[in-house]
Design goal:
Radius of gyration: 21 Å
Strand order of the largest sheet: 3-12-9-11-10-13
Helix content: 25-40%
Number of strands: 13
Number of domains: 2
Number of helices: 10
Order of helices and strands: EHHHEEEHEHEEHHHEEEEEHEH
CATH architecture of the largest domain: Beta Barrel
CATH class of the largest domain: Mainly Beta
Largest sheet: 6 strands, mixed, barrel
Oligomer: single chain
Strand content: 25-35%
Length: 359
């Protein structure tokens, strides 16, 4: 998120009604995949009581109740798969776009993430020496062990190892991404997903490399960090220990990966947001341009379906690009500035507009 003035105070989300014609690139976008992503969120809506609040706790915005969002779910279910015109009509009929600002600032930071793949084993042997830990049952009561302490064996010998993998660098980035696929040496593939964190703050190693004048700001991507770590194994291992945060995992069965909304993510159409400001399940029109290549724009309709430790503020997002090397390359170099617009059901938007008029 862009820096605020010293006297601006805490982040403050504000919404303003706009027309669909004002959304950059809306008229040329394909909405079919976004409908499918939204219907996945509807599975989560339908499990909640209709009168339950649909909202972000610190937003200051009345996002209505779950029951006020369900009619959009019912309409989405009637959209035929592959019908681009019907998909567009659905969003334009069911929702009202609302521009997001934070003290008048409409632009923020947008990054990318993906589902990483690692080679692993259920037993420690040969090259498989790096553990992937399950969440300790007493995590909430245990001391906040740092990454360095855990790597030095603070959890060893307790049977908490889910898998052993052959690449400590890949294991580190699995923690940053929050989900991945373990390819076992017998040919099986097992998906793992986020299941808690040690409670210590996440420190971006890319920022540390910039501060230490190892890499220039315009050079820092996931690919460049990995390349540097492989070229400098001892220094890379020390750098990873400078990030005290540590993530625990669980085995995920079925379709995935699973986001914070507890529904499967959709490649290129699921966005991680700060749930204090943006409700999970809300459709969002995203317009962002890469900071280091202004010719490359990311314009698409996404759905807020995940969260992340580094995703903080009213205008901040992390786009899920899918699984595999191509998705990893795209996610690793995404560092964009842009804006987004929330799509709210008409009955909810009418109330938000009225509230804002009297603010």
């Amino acid at each position: 998120m862009l820096a605020l003035g010293r006297d601006a105070g805490p982040p403050r989300l504000r919404l303003e009604r706009v027309g669909f014609a004002e959304l950059p690139g809306w008229a040329r976008a394909d909405m079919k995949a976004a409908v499918q992503a939204f219907t996945k969120s509807c599975l989560a809506f339908e499990k909640a009581p209709g009168g339950a609040p649909f909202g972000a706790v610190d937003s200051g915005v009345d996002y209505g109740t779950v029951g006020e969002w369900l009619p959009a779910c019912h309409a989405a279910a009637d959209v035929s798969a592959g019908d681009a015109a019907a998909a567009r009509r659905f969003f334009e009929d069911a929702f009202v776009p609302m521009a997001v600002t934070n003290y008048g600032e409409a632009r923020g930071l947008f990054t990318g993430y993906f589902e990483i793949e690692l080679n692993g084993s259920v037993n420690r042997h040969g090259p498989y020496q790096t553990p992937i830990y399950r969440r300790p049952p007493e995590l909430a009561q245990m001391p906040r062990l740092s990454r360095a302490e855990i790597e030095d064996g603070a959890l060893a010998g307790r049977g908490l190892e889910l898998f052993w993998v052959d690449d400590p660098i890949a294991a580190f980035f699995l923690q940053i991404e929050g989900s991945g696929v373990i390819r076992l040496h017998d040919g099986r593939k097992v998906r793992v997903g986020y299941d808690g964190q040690n409670g210590l703050p996440y420190v971006p190693v890319g920022r540390l490399l910039i501060e230490r004048h190892v890499l220039a700001a315009g050079e820092v991507t996931m690919a460049s960090i990995i390349k540097w770590m492989r070229a400098h194994p001892r220094a890379g291992a020390a750098l990873r220990r400078d990030d005290p945060a540590y993530v625990f995992f669980r085995i995920v069965h079925g379709d995935g990966p699973i986001g914070a909304e507890h529904v499967p993510l959709t490649a290129e159409h699921s966005l991680a947001v700060d749930p204090r400001f943006i409700p999970l399940g809300v459709p969002i029109w995203l317009d962002a341009k890469e900071r280091f290549d202004q010719r490359e724009a990311v314009r698409r309709l996404v759905v807020a379906q995940d969260t992340g430790g580094a995703i903080k503020g009213p205008i901040r997002g992390d786009l899920f690009w899918g699984a595999g090397s191509v998705a990893g390359e795209r996610a690793g170099r995404m560092n964009a500035r842009g804006s987004y617009w929330l799509l709210l059901p008409r009955v909810v938007a009418a109330r938000v507009i009225q509230d804002e008029a009297w603010d």
